[in-house]
Amino acid sequence: MRNVSSIVATIKKAYVSRQFKRRNRSIIGDLSLTVLLGLFGLFSVWPLIFIINNAFKPLNEIFIFPPKLFVMSPTLTNFQDLFIVIGNSWVPMTRYIFNTVFITAIGTLGSVIIGSMAAFPLAKYVFPGSKTMSKLIVYSLMFNGTVTALPNYIIMSKLHMIDTYWALLLPSIGGTLGLFLMMNFMVQVPDALIEAAKIDGAKELTIFWRIMMPLSRSAWITLIILSFQSLWGTTGGGVIFTEKLKPVSYALSQIVNAGIARTGVASAVTLIMLVVPVVVFIISQSNVISTMATSGIKE
């Protein structure tokens, strides 16, 4: 009996000591992690703060060396000069904006729908060549846009789509990044839901729209953000040559390249092009983090 009491006391003492050590280690670890993340956060937000301040700096502050982070004499001159330059363009700015909105909306919608519909059978069905296709999709992610620019141009040229919206839309809709994200997310949806839907008489399209898409909401919202950011900033300079078909980013880039006198205007342009993607990302960042955390899980 005494031995049992001794053992219990020893275990209790060890447990209390372990809890005490874990508690101390947890507090120190939390503080260290908070400080580390705070430093990384400041490092990450530094360029954004610099861009915002630069847009409101007069030219004499922009050329100060070493450069100052915060603006000392805020001014709207850079934005006023930007609107003056835009007003002198022979193509209305509204046309450039329409081109960007049209390309971004159609390209984003197409990439989500086509990518999701292609990911569904690859994620939930086994058919001849399915594994090979999945490997090719992963392999294609190794090549960035610079590598595929020339093949895309040749294909668009063969299809007689150069100098049309399709020269930007088709490569975006046919991209494999969205397909990869949707496929890895749909794999995690329980097969029992699909079997139950089939027993109830649901067809494949019904299963796709009523079950797979709602359960993959985080994935396709992430895909919307990635496609939006890619198309919003595209200039289309290598495949679109008619001025009336060019996006707003191309028009703004030409303003920036006009010379050193437009450095302030360039700062305003940078801020304008940055605001929309940043706002879209902030609104839906939880879905992006959720998708990135789960899309790499290997079943």
TrEMBL record:
Cleaved signal peptide residues: none
Membrane topology reported for the UniProt record: Multi-pass membrane protein
GO biological process, alphabetically ordered: transmembrane transport
Domain ABC transmembrane type-1: 97-284
Bilayer-crossing regions: 27-52, 96-124, 136-154, 166-187, 219-240, 260-283
PROSITE patterns associated with the record: ABC_TM1
Family under the similarity heading: Belongs to the binding-protein-dependent transport system permease family.
Localization per record: Cell membrane
Protein name: ABC transporter permease
Stored PANTHER family: ABC TRANSPORTER PERMEASE PROTEIN MG189-RELATED-RELATED, BINDING-PROTEIN-DEPENDENT TRANSPORT SYSTEMS INNER MEMBRANE COMPONENT
Keyword terms: Cell membrane, Membrane, Transmembrane, Transmembrane helix, Transport
InterPro entries assigned: MetI-like (IPR000515), MetI-like_sf (IPR035906)
Highest taxon above the source species: Bacteria
Record Pfam families: BPD_transp_1 (PF00528)
Database matches in SUPFAM superfamilies: MetI-like
GO cellular component, one term: plasma membrane
